[in-house]
Design brief:
Layout (H helix, E strand, L loop, with lengths): L2 H5 L5 E3 L4 H11 L3 E6 L2 E7 H10 L16 E2 L2 E3 L4 H11 L3 E6 L2 E7 H11 L6 H4 L6 E3 L4 H11 L3 E5 L5 E6 H12 L8 H4 L4 H4 L2 H4 L6 E3 L4 H11 L3 E5 L5 E6 H9 L3
Parallel strand pairs: 1-2, 5-6, 8-9, 11-12
Antiparallel strand pairs: 2-3, 3-4, 6-7, 9-10, 12-13
Length: about 270
């Protein structure tokens, strides 16, 4: 069994003739962030939680989720052979800014590997090789606690990011809001049978204009230390089922973010 076969997962699929409502139900029921899309039982594309959320925030049509075809939003899936080394997978993901790869055997997609799978491998097999400070992003995006969700969504979309630190007016970080938090709210609106999306989110009285970041954010920012072994930080992400942690200086100040994307970049550059 190859190194990649040990960490890859069997893909969960949906037919291209389905609707966004169908895909959303599968994601929620199975608690997954992506599905592979089939045509005539052959995997041809992928739909991710992030792609779905960004599409819905931009879509201006008067359609419910049950009336938006899956084919309108899916993307081609990038693949690699099951004999590919894990580090090479990290390089492909990093270069193409994607969170998963289809794994092929004899030209058929037989599995999928995600950022989470690579983070698990790093946590298990790369202790004491890198510290958090070597790999973190020193710059992070943030919003004030009274920022409306509509503006939060716009900032995430414009900067292609998955999380924002929330500050109070004294510039103190008090929480974090992630794309998944926003996605759950967006979908909860869109799945109402008689609701037209995104008008219900963007209208003057919709949640996008009335809810503020502090009402949705997670009050606790899970953190690690600048000098912490990155394999331990990886385990912290896995244990808390999150995609990024705050990084603290020795003085306890928030000086950066370590995300799964940062970890994939680090794996790609391992000696």
């Amino acid at each position: 069994m190859s190194q990649l076969e040990k960490v890859m997962n069997i893909p969960i699929t949906i037919d291209i003739e389905s609707t966004i409502a169908d895909a959303t139900k599968i994601m929620f029921d199975k608690k997954i962030s992506r599905v592979l899309v089939t045509k005539n039982q052959e995997i041809i594309a992928i739909l991710t939680e992030k792609d779905l959320g960004l599409f819905l925030l931009k879509d201006k049509s008067s359609r419910t989720l049950q009336h938006i075809p899956l084919s309108e939003i899916v993307k081609p899936i990038l693949t690699t052979s099951q004999s590919t080394e894990i580090q090479e997978c990290a390089k492909i993901m990093s270069k193409n800014n994607i969170g998963s790869l289809g794994i092929t055997s004899k030209d058929d997609v037989v599995g999928i590997i995600t950022k989470t799978d690579l983070v698990k491998d790093f946590a298990t097999n790369h202790q004491n090789e890198k510290i958090v400070g070597e790999c973190m992003s020193a710059h992070y995006f943030w919003v004030y606690s009274d920022t409306t969700l509509s503006k939060v969504a716009s900032k995430m979309s414009e900067n292609k990011i998955s999380r924002l630190i929330v500050r109070n007016k004294e510039e103190i970080p008090i929480g974090i809001i992630t794309f998944r938090d926003l996605f759950n709210i967006v979908i909860s609106i869109g799945t109402e049978r008689d609701t037209i999306f995104p008008k219900s989110f963007e209208s003057d009285h919709g949640l996008g204009k009335t809810l503020q970041a502090e009402e949705v954010m997670r009050n606790e920012i899970i953190t690690t230390n600048y000098y912490e072994d990155m394999s331990k930080a990886c385990q912290l992400l896995l244990d808390n089922k999150i995609n990024g942690v705050g990084v603290l200086s020795d003085k306890g100040d928030l000086i950066g973010i370590l995300s799964k994307t940062d970890i994939i970049k680090a794996i790609a550059t391992l000696n």
